[in-house]
Amino acid sequence: MPALVLLGAQWGDEGKGKATDLLGGSVDYVVRYQGGNNAGHTVVVGDQKYALHLLPSGILSPGCTPVIGNGVVVDPSVLLSELSGLNERGVDTSKLLLSGNAHIITPYNVTMDKVTERFLGKRKIGTTGRGIGPTYADKINRVGIRVQDLYDESILTQKVEAALDVKNQVLTKLFNRRAIAVDQVVEELLAYADKLAPYVSDTVLVLNQALEEDKVVLFEGGQGTLLDIDHGTYPFVTSSNPTAGGACTGAGVGPTKISRVIGILKAYTTRVGAGPFPTELFDEDGEALRRIGGERGVTTGRDRRCGWFDAVIARYATRVNGLTDFFLTKLDVLTGWEQIPVCVAYEIDGKRVEELPYSQTDFHHAKPVYEMLPGWNEDISKAKSFGDLPKNAQAYVKALEEMSGAPISAIGVGPGRDETIEINSFL
Ligand code: GDP
Ligand code: IMO
Ligand code: MG
Known about the structure:
By secondary structure, the chain is of the alpha/beta class. The radius of gyration is 22 Å and the shape is globular. It is built from twelve helices and 20 strands. The protein folds into two domains: 3-91 and 202-422, Alpha-Beta Complex (Adenylosuccinate Synthetase, Chain A, domain 3), CATH 3.90.170; 103-198, Orthogonal Bundle (Adenylosuccinate Synthetase, subunit A, domain 2), CATH 1.10.300.10. 6-O-phosphoryl inosine monophosphate (IMO) binds next to helix 4. Its cofactor is Mg(2+). Plays an important role in the de novo pathway of purine nucleotide biosynthesis. Catalyzes the first committed step in the biosynthesis of AMP from IMP. GTP binds at residues 12-18, 40-42, 304, 330-332, 412-414.
């Protein structure tokens, strides 16, 4: 019963899409378990580049069944346009399975996301504006709409009525917006029902049966550990659990089934949206990381904030996820620096702190304590084995491994499928 979780160890955009796609050819199922189309996962196959938002990256591997689990929030228009976009490029998407229990991002959830952010002004989270937070809020508040509701018009109407009851008051009285008509929403949602019907299934049953039959299941996280609603830099987080436990609740698979948890770790750090980021750079080094690393959001096109590697965060990710391995990505981007600073601890109010402080105030005050590691100039993009890397690049990887608390089992040296050094096999 080999079930693997692959998740972001930092603030997202670590290269999860590439890593998932790489394993996709050897696994039977790839499952998204949380988040929605706030994610932007890039996969490069040969000269083709794909940007996936809602579909699991396994969709590009013909032998693999892609699954959208119950923990995901689904915008039907985005899902259908992503499917047709892939079909136009010759990708077979017919195997997709969509949980009937997944919640739907309705048009009013998208509206609420946007108006709330505007209302927050300079205190805004910097969300992707895709309706993620309000949809999860409705789910927890028990006024959410699920995929299965599209197949019972009467229930759907009652649920949309319940959801809009309070929201329309807020929209009209607080945000000075027009009320949203129940009929219009119901009509729009019902129009998706037939188109989604071929994919809707009992994904919990399918996945558990697959595991009993010794099939290999890979869970692909969206976002990252520090964006987790419980374990991230709250309130500057997303509204779901990208951490390993989220794979269990978001797919209906028990923790005893998970055999490996792989943290995707960028060789430096990036973040999109607001919130604390101790190693953030505001100088030409930050600009160079952004330029060389192509650090621009796949979903919103926003420039990503860039900074040096933060080992405190990596250690934290190891702990809260029970990581068994790291997949280190974008090592090639660091080529050309004479020395590379790595944050080994924080200084908070004059004291050295080795672990991530639980207090938000302390984290906001954290200043990075850097250790300088020697850089390299050789092109590493063609390296196929660890031994092919220049000595200083090897030492950088070894130092990160020691500081981060789990073995680095693969190294990305370029965006392509084959631009990867495998050290320990994942399967
Ligand atoms: P995700 O959200 O975690 O899937 O990551 P994104 O796709 O948002 O951002 C990662 C970016 O880095 C994408 O443009 C990838 O094609 C690219 N990428 C992934 N791994 C590597 C690598 O090892 N080297 C380089 N240069 N680029 C990489
Ligand atoms: P992938 O899967 C990076 C960030 C947003 C914002 C916060 C909340 O590509 O790594 P939300 O719309 O989720 O309510 O926004 O979370 N965020 C991401 N940052 N990568 C992502 O996904 C993200 N998904 C959400 O920028 O700060
Ligand atoms: Mg991304």
